[in-house]
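To fix ideas, we now present one chain and its tokenised fold:
***
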Amino acid sequence: QVQLVESGGGLVQAGGSLRLSCAASGRTFSTYHMGWFRQGPGKEREFVAATFWSGGNIHYADSVKGRFTLSRDNARNAVSLQMNSLKPEDTAVYYCAASMRPITIGTIEGSEEYDYWGQGTQVTVSS
């Protein structure tokens, strides 16, 4: 089992940057697939970015490609999300999630594939 704690959210103007961090407990962090999701006001939770436990290509939602970067540090049990060129539509609560399921490229974006979730951190982008 793993516990996740996000940090780094806040209020930023459009065009600005924020870096979200997710600290994970447990000694088996390197065996988890890790993802970031977000839920905007009045919207359903949506996929942002994710990485398989084995590394390789990182997957991004089309809406954040080229602006957001997911990084993983297994030695520190942490994953981060660097968010640049922020837009008002990026306003949401951002969640870190972990999974040990046999996720594939076809399912990595599904929130139902993730068993462990952080409490979320609020990101607000003003216009």
User: Anything to note?
Assistant: Residues 11 and 56 are 32 Å apart (CA to CA).
